[in-house]
DNA polymerase I (Ligilactobacillus ruminis), 876 residues
Amino acid sequence: MQTDNKMLLIDGNSLTFRGFYALFMQTERFVNQQGLHTSAVYSFKLMLDKVLDLVKPDKVLVAFDAGKKTFRTQKFADYKGGRKKTPAELTEQFPYVKQLLDGYGIKHYELVNYEADDIIGTMAKKAEAAGYQVTIVTGDHDLTQLVTNKITVALTVKGVTELEFYTPEYLYEKLGLTPKQIIDLKALSGDTSDNYPGVTKVGEKTALKLLNEYESLENLYANLETMKKSKLKEHLEADKEVAFACQDLATIRTDAPVSISLEELDFEGQDAEKLQAFYQELDFNKFLSELRQTEVKNDVEVHVLTKDILAKLSLKKPVSLYVEMADENYHTADFWGFSLNVAGKTYASEDLALLQEPKLKEYLETTPVDVFDGKKTYTALKRLGITLAGVDFDLLLVSYLLNNTDNSNDLGTLCQKQGYLKVAGDDDVYGKGAKKQKPAADIFLQHLTTKALAIYELKEKLMAALVQNEQADLYIKIERPLSLVLAQMEISGIKVDRAKLEEMGSNFTELLADLEQRIYQAAGESFNINSPKQLGTILFEKLSLPVIKKTKTGYSTASDVLEKLTDYDIVADVLQYRQYAKLKSTYIDGLLKVIAPDGKVHTRYTQTLTTTGRLSSVDPNLQNIPVRLEEGKKIRQAFVPSQDGWEIFTSDYSQIELRVLAHISQDENMKQAFKDGIDIHAKTAMNIFNLTDPSEVTANMRRQAKAVNFGIVYGISDFGLAQNIGISRKQAKEFIAGYFDLFPGVKKYMDEIVQKAKKQGYVETIFHRRRYLEGINSKNFNQRSFAQRTAMNTPIQGSAADIIKIAMIKMQAELTKRNLKAKMLLQVHDELIFEAPQTEISILEELVPQIMDSAVDLDVPLKVESGHGQTWFDTK
């Protein structure tokens, strides 16, 4: 029978083993959030894609071993007996390789008492008889015995993706053997992998020579008497039974009792839904992205919104709105277009003036809508003269709360992670990286249409998921209202004194020039101070300073290395030079570049970036203005009120994370200390230094105790604490033990939260903000330790972040209610920054601490410290 059909047979065990060792031995990063190793599955997937593309088969089967006991072990008890136990990291992956195959729509099969080789041999012969061209993919040379004019064996050469194709001709060219002689080669020389002996003292070279002369094992023994007397002849005579037994063991069966037929093996392509869920479970984001690109269905009907259509349109809830801009900075970006979904029907337009039409403008200013990124939408509409009434459903925020490791700001990417494949990612439409230019109108409007439609179609599903996770209040009472508070803060901006910054920049330039000359003088020559290579040569070769650490490229000049050498003036000067250079480039020059025409900087708060729930700030990052270095602190002198007769007012929580820890751990000693207003760092110092009188606590003792207090919050080890405060590891261990003696409830909390995390795979804040923990059950010590530390500190850090968010929402509401002119401008970690007329400062001194203190009801009091002055710097 002649046919053009193709059959692909894959040795599942061989390829899974090879894939595991190819990647696992190189890196251990292939672990999903639950600690499952995935290197073998990852490699298998790469191999599968390659061979499917090469062979383009009509039928596919992947064969696996059913177990260690087979008819061969019954014949020879030590068959494969020398093999090491399969690592647990590999064993756990076999079920997932089979799940991958299910997603690909590929049949996998195993047969009790037989090996994968026998299944492949049997099905190869069946397919050959039916006229198929057969390709076998394996890492096992034994299968080359199956090659014929219609059966090709593709052997993995390197890893699992480089293949060498064996046909009868290639086999003969490579080894000078026929397929049948492969069996006899094994019979004579044995197989160390499968652990059968062959003939004593006969290796592969001798076996090849014998087969070249006698052609087969049977012919060799039929003519053994004619062979000259030799040790080889003696071994052959003595091991005749062994040779034929090994021949039997090496022979792949082509008549195994398989229960599947060729008709069951049709390859009809992938099941995108199954693969999507599978890739998500294993954290295969690269494959997930590739799948989405192939599966996204941009076939949504486009309705172009015009003035006439808008006039006739009945605006009724729910309405989804998406505004597209030319880049991420929505304070300055050009508008490209918008889309509107009204009760399920979507419209798109490049004409932004339509948003300002009285009918639509009135609706947006009176009725909450559904959006993707409420803060961006509110700010963008404000630039168009529209004050958004509010937001009901925010797809970006809800996606983030459901899984804060999915912190993309791309609507298409987040939708695809939810299994919604109607929206392409922006990179696929606009090109990789920053948006370059708007595509053709038909493509652009299609893309906008799918975005508004996605918001509409995902709302019910994702809101239900929030309810199931007990996160509806977190969204409705904290994140959603906060997004509009942040929008108002961003729009207000904070004034920056350009002249002051420029003056500071000039001072830094002079300081850097002086330091540069001092460094050159000490070095005896000028060189590039910013070049680690040149600096290393000067310090460790020319000046012969002690070498602390070497790297592959030379001497390490990292800050932590140089800090051990500060007794040398040149090193102290280099460290100071670096500090000033960074201050000037990052903060002085950086801020000067982003001052808007109104004399202010308008940062953007990213609400969906961190896994703890903390806000971050970009363009510029105002949460990173230095506080420890005195020269860095002075940069705050450039932040001033926007009007004469106004001042900057600040309030910040004191030790909020430790207070949250006291509440969460319910440690009685810690709770009482905060209730009594005791200095918690001094109390800890007294315990770890065995003091009885608070007056005995020195400033250095308190500093070390403070490092212990905050280190414990972050799950610090004795090694880490020793490094932080410059003590021995033994002493650090004693400090930590003393801390837990004083606060046993904290130790109990930490043990319990780790166990809870191991059981459920995530931890929560007081307000049910979740953080899923990659590696909490990992066998890798480093991954597991990191996840455990994260489990300990996330509920504390995250709850503290939630508390200040609640305070911000309440504070904004109170400012509005009282009709105060004061404005909340910035949030920097645990601090809120306002500007207000001097006449309102006394009101803020009473009001802000009151609101912040009562933001939540903890079992310990919150403490707020406030200040005010002509600049941000002066408030302290």
